């Protein structure tokens, strides 16, 4: 089963990449992460940067990175915010569906320079859509 035109994508990930051994690149990423946390706590938008910042390659991501989850209700707001504030860092934007490989490749878009990914680390087809943060009652968890 694949996503079709009758199904809406309700949650997204933004992966911010940085050169983990470059002090300036790492500082920019940490600053973005901290600002995202502040804006979410203040209620400016709902976007959850994962607490874990990858200072080494992790999963399909071959350099330093961190992930931010956003429900569709705040997608445009976060997309615009990243466009204006990414500080030259590359950002992978992809939907969350049951098809991880397609989500990270043919369904993905990049802000900045596209970077290689190791798609062999991903699952081709998941049993269910990976709904995240149901406490917000947004995205796939909207009632």
UniProtKB/TrEMBL annotation:
The record's section on Pfam families has: DOPA_dioxygen (PF08883)
The record's annotation in PANTHER family points to:
AFR070WP
Name of this chain's protein? DOPA 4,5-dioxygenase
User: InterPro entries attached here?
Assistant: DOPA-like_sf, DOPA_dioxygen
Q: Which domain of life is it from?
A: Eukaryota
Origin species, per record, is Powellomyces hirtus
């Amino acid at each position: 089963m694949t996503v079709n035109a009758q199904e809406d994508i309700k949650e997204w990930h933004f992966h911010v990449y940085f050169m983990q051994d470059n002090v300036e690149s790492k500082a920019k990423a940490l600053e973005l992460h901290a600002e995202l946390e502040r804006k979410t706590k203040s209620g400016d938008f709902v976007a959850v940067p994962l607490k874990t910042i990858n200072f080494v390659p992790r999963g399909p991501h071959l350099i330093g990175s961190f992930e931010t989850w956003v429900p569709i209700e705040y997608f445009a707001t976060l997309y615009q915010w990243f466009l204006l504030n990414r500080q030259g860092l590359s950002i992978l934007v992809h939907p969350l569906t049951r098809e991880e490989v397609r989500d990270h490749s043919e369904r993905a878009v990049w802000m900045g320079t596209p970077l290689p990914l190791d798609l062999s680390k991903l699952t081709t087809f998941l049993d269910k859509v990976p709904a995240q943060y149901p406490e917000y009652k947004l995205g796939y968890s909207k009632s």
